Each structure stands twice: as structure tokens, then as C-alpha cells.
Amino acid sequence: MKRRILLGVLLLGGLLIGLVNAAGSVSTQSCWTPWDHNSDVRQWSDNEWVWTGIHGQVLVCNGQFKMVLTDTVYGTATAKGVEVISKGLKIDSKRSYAYVTYTRYGSIETAFADIPNYFG
To answer: Which domain of life does the UniProt lineage start with (predicted)?
Structure first.
């Protein structure tokens, strides 16, 4: 009888120690992957406008931005009625952006959208 009680106490103690060790090895870092998007739209009329936008997921851990998940990023830059100098999309894990540089009435301007937008 005493042996069974001793064996039961040892098994229960081993189980409790195992649970404590398992709980201690669980990561306390809280990470999530929200979608981030940004756009820059300028419109002077139906026939004169520029637009750039970007969309993608970012990795945020403990409330701090960690990286852009580059395989989720897409964006565009377009214009109508202005002279387009350049436009493009740059995808990087630290910062991704879309832009269009244009001339309107002799002034050179850039429409620019980037991620991270909320966490940068």
C-alpha cells in the first residue's frame, strides 16, 4: 500500500514538473501579420490625375514592426493627363513602396505610397 502511494506521489510530482517545464518553454512573444496598405491620389479633373498604391502584410511582434512579408506585396502607379517621368514598385522586407514622378505645369512632383505605413 505504501509503495503505491509513494509511486503515485512520484508520478504526480513528475507530471507537475513536466508541465512547469513545458509552460516555461512556450514563447512569450506575440506576433501577428496584419495587412498594411497606403495610397497617394491626386486628381485635378476627370482627365488629369495620378494614383499610386501598395498593399501587403507585415510581421508585427509585441506591437513593433519587424518586417514586410515581401511575397504578399503588390502595388501600382499610374497617371493620366500629366507627363510621367518615372514610375515603379520597390519591394523590400524593411520598406516597400510604389511611386510615380510626374510633371504638371512645369513642376516636378511625386506621388508616393509605402509600407509599413502604420508601423513605420
So the answer is: Archaea
